[in-house]
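User: My collaborator sent over this chain with a note saying "see what the structure looks like." That's all I know about it. Can you take a look?
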Amino acid sequence: MHHELGLYPIDRQGLSIAENLHLIRAAGFDYVCVHKMAHLLEEGPQSFRAAAEREGLPIDNIHLTGDNTNALWLEGALGDEVLDRYCHEIETAARLGVRIGIVHATWGFVTPPPSETGLRRYEHMVRCAEKAGFVIAFENSAGVENLCAILDNIDSPAARFCYDSGHRNVFAPDTDILHRYRDRLVVTHLDDNDGRHDLHLIPFDGCADFDAIAPDLKRIPRLTFEVCGIGEKQTRCTAEGLRDSMRRIAIIDDARLTEIGCGRYRFYAALSQEEHLDRLMTAARKLRNRIENSP
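Assistant: Without extra context I'll predict from the sequence alone. Here is the result:
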């Protein structure tokens, strides 16, 4: 199987959506994805949908809004409000022609335990998706047990799986979540990190083992990449402490790709957007080749 390659736009200050999508097409990507509902709802010639259409880039999927997702697992009115928001976004995205939405089973590093309340709400969400002709791709992040509770208990063609390689590398490196749900896989978020921080680096720039997951990615026709923009990240660590904590990053000693200072770090800032996309495309083709030639 030949895999198409897709991307969420990489944020860079001063670059419009139209310019970003033009560069994505020029780099050789086959389709794009939408970070958030606000981008999908924009109208006019400079909107995401209009720019994607001009570039001949189909929109494969969208992140549904994750705020307060943990409330779905808890009793109370907030959980019901979050459920209503998800169902409304599902109906809206489907009406606008996007048929796959990414949903995290939990949000943030502190996660509530699975509950009957949560499963009841997620089942209602899936039924909303069924009515809209929509597919929810539940993404692995922190709280793997919540994801498993959903996928093990809700049996529907509208309840599928989104695999994030970086999240697995940070949150659950010893759980082979991809192999477990490979038959329900519809979306990938391919990215890399140091095994400690959710950095969304370009594959092979961190320490994730892509050879190990390659066989389980053979059957999905599209490989989607979700990598970081250029924004500086703030931290309380010293430069020495940061460098020590990130020592497993493959590009840690490349000053053009990694900048670490006292209380801050950023990646790829010295690259132009064209160079950034070219580096990502090189990695994407390398990974695609490994997947297509895996046993």
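A starting point for your reply to your collaborator: The mean pLDDT is 95.
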